[in-house]
Amino acid sequence: MTGFIPWRTVDLQLQSLRTVWISCTRPDGRPHATPVWFIWDDKQIIFAVSKQSQKARNLKHQPFVVVHAGDGDDAYILEGIAELVSEPAELERLNRLYMEKYVDPNSGARATLNPEQDDIYRVRVQHVMCWLYGTVTNRTDWRFGS
Length: 146
Fold this sequence. Notes:
single chain, alpha+beta, Pnp Oxidase, Chain A, 8 strands
């Protein structure tokens, strides 16, 4: 770690957020960024994309992603490689976590991960950069094994 922001601050924020922005690269080199629901699971981000989507085509071509969370005052930027999750027991575990997180407050309906329609990706975060309001000039970085 370089900087002054405690890791616990980042961890709690990523546990509490509903949405992050995933940025990837189209095959022709143009950037592509979209919001996704996600699971924060021990320095990993898990998210789903439709198998027919632009993001799915992008990730098959180039799996490096940048994940943006927070806003302009409190910014969390994470980098890593997106990899498909295909092991059935792991998909079941992740679906349970997803169902716990995304519950409709009116009906109680739970969102689910659907590997038949969606590609489920895991990003093992390699680098995190964080700025918080009041410490903007004191960026904090963490690097993790890939």
